[in-house]
Automatic annotation (TrEMBL):
SUPFAM superfamilies: GatB/YqeY motif (SSF89095)
Superkingdom of this protein's organism: Bacteria
Source organism: Vagococcus luciliae
InterPro entries: Asn/Gln_tRNA_amidoTrase-B-like, GatB_Yqey_C_2, YqeY/Aim41, YqeY/Aim41_N
Name recorded for this polypeptide: Aspartyl-tRNA amidotransferase
């Protein structure tokens, strides 16, 4: 079952349950995927769907951070709920230990020894962690390991 089919089924369930918040988030996700398909001119692969979902998640996390900084608990709570809904469709996140192992194996693989090799290491790590780890967290772990 493709992500779009799963979203359509879950939209129907949310409509029947009269769950407006979930329905709104699911429709936004569906719309993002469909817009991407229109741009591409064909159906998206599972990896491309994951990229779209990751972008949706990142937008919400950025919004949450902004709302917390500007002391808007009402909006922060709303966005937190949206994040929980989007997380249902994301693959299981990597633990910190798993992430450290991936970073270390990438450093060994590229022969990196200093911060000059940061780009090489990130180029190896990011495809392996796509959608399963926050990019900022990966970035900080790579910097920490290379320092």
């Amino acid at each position: 079952m493709t992500l779009l089919n799963r979203l359509n089924n879950d939209i129907k369930v949310a409509m029947k349950a009269k769950d407006k918040e979930t329905l709104s988030v699911l429709r936004m996700m569906k719309s993002s995927i469909q817009n991407e398909e229109i741009k591409k001119g064909e159906s998206l692969s599972p990896d491309e769907e994951l990229t779209v979902l990751s972008r949706e998640m990142k937008q919400r996390k950025d919004s949450l951070q902004e709302f917390n900084q500007t002391d808007r608990p009402d909006l922060a709570e709303k966005v937190s709920g949206e994040i929980k809904i989007v997380e249902r469709y994301m693959p299981e996140q990597l633990s910190e230990d798993e992430l450290r192992n991936i970073v270390q194996s990438a450093i060994d693989e590229t022969g990196a020894s200093s911060m000059k090799d940061f780009g090489k290491v990130m180029g190896v790590v990011m495809p392996k962690t796509k959608g399963r780890a926050d990019g900022q967290k990966v970035n900080s772990l790579v910097k920490e390991s290379l320092a």
